[in-house]
Amino acid sequence: MSKSALVILAQGAEEMETIITVDMLRRGGVTVTLAGLDGNSPVLCSRQVTVVPDKSLADALAANPQYDAVILPGGLEGSDRLSKSSVVGTLLKEHEKAGKIVAAICAGECWPIVLH
């Protein structure tokens, strides 16, 4: 069975940190879900690139409440939005407690965990 990863995309995320991470994991055989924090609508990233998530975070968690890894891309605005989400804070704590991988890139690091 393939490993699974959830990458959470928020408006203002750093597009390279998001897309390259998703691409490399998928090339490595990981089943990656790119989930939009605020739904499944296109997300405007930090350098004005629009990225379309696979599904909303709510739908991703309804389909699979636990992943092998949860990854937060950086980008100051995106990280700020992630840090304000109680859903993200709870998700990270649950995954950490279950011994799953919780990863953050650049500005994505720790804010959601620290604030919730």
Describe the 3D structure.
By secondary structure, the chain is α/β, with parallel strands linked by helices. The protein has a single domain (4-115), classed as Class I glutamine amidotransferase (GATase) domain (Rossmann fold, 3-Layer(aba) Sandwich), CATH 3.40.50.880. The chain contains 5 helices and 7 strands; from the N terminus they run βαββββαβααβα. A hairpin with a 5-residue loop joins β3 (43-44) and β4.
Walk me through the topology.
Layout: E1 4-9, H1 15-27, E2 31-36, E3 43-44, E4 50-51, E5 55-56, H2 57-63, E6 69-72, H3 76-83, H4 86-97, E7 101-104, H5 111-115
Parallel strand pairs: 1-2, 1-6, 2-5, 6-7
Antiparallel strand pairs: 3-4
What is this entry, summarized?
The chain contains 5 helices and 7 strands, in the order E-H-E-E-E-E-H-E-H-H-E-H. It is α/β, with parallel strands linked by helices.
